[in-house]
Amino acid sequence: MKNVFILVPNSSVLQAIADPRYLFTTVNQFLVHAGKEALFNVQLVGEKKEVFLNEGLFSVHTDRQLDDSSQADLIFVPALFGDLTKAVAANQALVPWIVQQYKRGAEVASLCVGAFLLASTGLLTGKKCSTHWGFINEFRQLYPDVEVVDGSVITEENGLYSSGGANSYWSLLLHLVEKYTDRETAILASKYFAVDIDRTNQSAFAMFTGQKAHQDEAVRKAQAHIESKVTEKITVDELADLVSVGRRSFERRFKQATHNSVLEYIQRVKVETAKRSFETSKKNISEVMLDVGYTDTKAFRTTFKKVTGLTPVEYRNKYNKITLP
After folding, report:
1. For helices 217-228 and 247-258, what crossing angle results, to 10°?
2. For the chain, which domains are there?
3. Chain segment 143-181, per-residue pLDDT in tens
4. Does the chain have fewer CB atoms within 10 Å around its N or its C terminus?
5. 61 beta partners
6. Which are the contacts of 256, defined by CB distance < 8 A and separation ≥ 6?
7. Backbone angles phi, psi at 147, to 5 degrees
């Protein structure tokens, strides 16, 4: 029997507590119906017997508290809610317990922005991590020693798992079901819960707004220029001249401030504009391509798929329900 402990932090998302519990208890039922023994002892663990969420709107009754010495095989750190810095601070009592359990052999999986709490333990230092695409910049500022894998749905390193944003964590849950049981059971669970299995990328859902939370005014000026000239071809030399900074120094400062190279930033701005056009207009692929400054269909398709994980046609068909002529 594997002990699966689901933490119940203060300021956390109820669904990210309920979903792993629902999944792993349902997998137990699958196993029993197949004539096997239930595999998972699923328990909710918290600092107190009752934890209130969403300013008291919900309460969760835990099965055990932190002072219980039982050893976990797998621990889930659910998504936090609200101001993440405050939410992490409100749950520091959980940190020593997580660290102790991991050192004694437990695997630990964070769901969505639960990565913030997992990173606060120091266990992710020097390791890779996934989190919600909308909070990557904030995560990097708080935990610069953790490598965020931009766009990834699942990361796994040394028994530490993390997942992408919102419902992306279902991909990690199914991955762990497969690891602890088998592929057949994971597929059954994916069909039962109507969740795609083996999805590895959350890029199609990401909205690029530009990394502006920095103090480099030269880089800010360059960013504004890029975003105002989306239909034009812009060179690194042009931007460096615009802000009166040497090219090598400009490229270094831009990368440091935005976590993108200049070329990557230009591409992402153009692709984001193309995405909005595909979602809301009747323009065809060629028209959108020209609108964002591309003249080479292959180059546009390659760049678009690199950023979003989908081809332009796949993206338009997925998000645009306007009847095209």
Report:
1. 90
2. 2-205 (3.40.50.880), 217-319 (1.10.10.60)
3. 999 998 876 678 888 999 998 876 778 888 998 999 999
4. C
5. 50
6. 216
7. -90, 110
